[in-house]
Amino acid sequence: MGIIVQQYYQLSITVSLIVFGFLIISYILFQFSKKFIQFKLYWVNGIIINLLLFSIGTMLTYYRDVSHSPNHIDNYYKSGDAIIATLQEPLSEKEKSYKALASVEYVSANDSLHPVKSSLLIYFKKDSSLPELDYGTQIVFNKPLQQIRNSGNPSAFNYQQYCAFQGIYCQAFLKQREFVVMPQKNENIIKKFLLIAQQKTLNVFRKYIQGDEEKGFAEALLIGYKDDLDKNLVQSYTNTGVVHIIAISGMQLALIYGFLIILFKPFSKFRLARLLKPIVIISTLWLFSLMSGASASVLRAAVMLTCIVIGESFSKKASIYNNLAASAFLLLCYNPFWLWDVGFQLSYSAVLSIVIFMKPIYNLIYIQNKILDFIWQLTAVTLSAQILTTPISIFHFHQFPNYFLLTNLIAVPLSSIILFGELLLCAVSFIPFIAKFVGIVLYKLIWLLNSFIEHVETMPQSLWNSLQINILQVIFLYAFLISISIWLMMKKKNYFQLSLIALLCFVMIRSFSFWQSNHQQKMIVYNVPQHQAIDFVSGRDYVFRGDSILQEDGFLRNFHLKPSHIMNRISESDSVEDLFQANDIFPFGQKRILMVDQNISFDNPPTKTKVDIIIITKNPSLKIANLANVFDCNQWVFDSSNSSWKTSKWKKECEQLHLSCFDVVDKGAFVMNMD
Q1: CA atoms of 183 and 15, how far apart (whole Å)
Q2: Structure pTM?
Q3: Could you count the other beta carbons within 10 Å of the beta carbon of residue 508?
């Protein structure tokens, strides 16, 4: 709660420190008070401890935000100052550039170097003469930094916040002659070792596993390297409910842990083996975690398994709930912003769900046959994991895979075999003929798994799509699940009534949102770089006016337009398509709209024509003053298909003429209600 309150309300750190000090003193005084007072006012101790945790959460969140650091780049940098930065990772290839995360070491201002603490994204233009750039390379440049911004489209992914949670606020776009490579490198020995190990693993896979899709899958499954992963394949795994397989998670770590336990079992009689066992297991788990990118879900599993290994080495059995809570607490102390990480949320909800529901579900059916019993165990695990993850999945991804049970029953065991096969391939890579054979087997298995997933995706009704729930509905959905579970598992009748109340509240909120959608009428001018994209929404139908590539390119459509369509609960219609005429006025709702998408000229009329909105799109050559002499307009809109220099010129003209204008590139999507 402290983390959440600090993030959204930005409490003063001075106030937090004073409150923390007061609570510490109160706690100490309470501990030294008389025993009968402690016994009588035991609840005071609980309140103080919870308030202490709350204040710790606020302070951790404040200090984790690098923008509050006295050495943050904003305190020294001015546009045009020289920057010395160190690349923190190898270059990642994009369509038109190379991308890398860099840390800013110094800012050169006023003839002196100021050490700063900041991270930024650097995009290098693809060029044959681009010098060799790798982890640890230091560069100097003075090209102005750009703030990372969102597209501003309705319900779009909040990329700015995503980067801010990682301490990244700026980006730079550099051409070959806009930076200088320094002769020395700035490397961390441990990080360099991990990157070398990762690169050697990649080289093994690229040498012995055939097929681009299969190589990309193998890299993602074992070490979390996703640069070679096919986007359509990822979407197929997402749509069928098994994307957790290629998103490094606790599953891979648990399999490696299980493999190491089996490996040490024959040597359990030897004292040296018993001493080495926890050291080797913990070292291997953390080495794998760091090499795979140290995501929140992997670290959660690493912390939990470390606690289990240490406990077992001292013959102690800890509660799984305590391990789960302790790992979450430690991770949030390290990085409070992981609370908003989808992987963190899904990871903990899945494990908690399995711990709570797996045994009750498994005990529903008794099966004597060992093979069928194993299949039923997998089914019970899959069903139990889905219970508490479903609300979060629907909230973030707006879909539900209807065949998740089928895909998990096949994909989880098969991917486990593939994972062990990849470990074997790395182990025998120095023996070419064996490695080649293992690589062929892995290729066949990965191809089989990918083909199965892609086939399931094409099955009728495989995906329940375009689901939209808000955070309040998520809360009521969890209230329903918890109440109905307590009623079923503990036979407490009152909780059945609570579950019905929670379900009723959920349905009422959902019904109201549908009523709002049925009565909406709005226009949305999207911010899609270099493209025209406009939706005219009437009820739950919309008409799209824009570039055809946005309808054809699945990634562009899903990233820029689909979130808005889901949020507004709309589907495409052609009911008002005949209204659109280039350079002509058309009515929509209670508004009159003029869309200018080509060069035009008007004779000055005796009286101006009244319009509500003028949308300038497709980069026409015109002057605002000429249009203003013909049309009396309240709102001018410049979309993202116009060139930046023309938009800047038009904005200056509007300012001189005292006209209200809206640039979607600068301010995000333009949304106007038409009723």
Answers
A1: 47
A2: 0.86
A3: 12
